[in-house]
Amino acid sequence: MKKTLLALLTSFSLIGSAWAIDRDDMIMALQDYMEMASFGDGVIMAANLAEIKDEVVLVDARQAHDFSNNAIPGAINIDWRFVLSELDKLPEDQMIVLYCDTGILSSKAHMALRLVGYDQVRVLFNGLAGWHEHTGQ
User: Fold this and answer.
1) What DSSP line would sit under 35-104, residue for residue?
2) Looking at the predicted structure, is the pLDDT value of residue 6 above 60?
3) Measured between alpha carbons, how far is 63 from 95 in angstroms, rounded to an integer?
4) Are 79 and 63 in contact (CB under 8 A)?
5) Which CATH class, in words, describes the domain spanning 38-135?
6) Domain extents for the chain?
7) With bands split at pLDDT 50, 70 and 90, how would you rate the model's confidence at 108?
8) pTM of the model
């Protein structure tokens, strides 16, 4: 399934139009992906992150000005919209934890990374707000 979806996404980038790819094939591949993902599989709670924070790549998926104003110490900043164009900053063999203010934007980046084969990627539940609530910072 992963290879089928990757082939479809590669075709998409080469052809330039999602509608140039058979829409039914794309839907089927995406549905297969969504069915295999278990509920909560891609989420990490702030308490769990605090225990392993030094072992993960922590990515703030917000815009640069938000990152510069308030970020989790040790995080790097990759705007969620550019996560695929900045894959060179992300290891494939280490857990990546994405966060934003609430988890919505980082969830979009999470799905994109999962679709291109990153298996060890998580989203911080409740985002930066959840982190601050847990740490009191």
Assistant:
1) HHSPTTTTEE-HHHHHHHGGGSEEEE-S-HHHHHHS--TT-EE--GGGTTTTGGGS-SSS-EEEE-SSSH
2) no
3) 22
4) yes
5) alpha beta
6) 1-36, 38-135
7) very high
8) 0.78
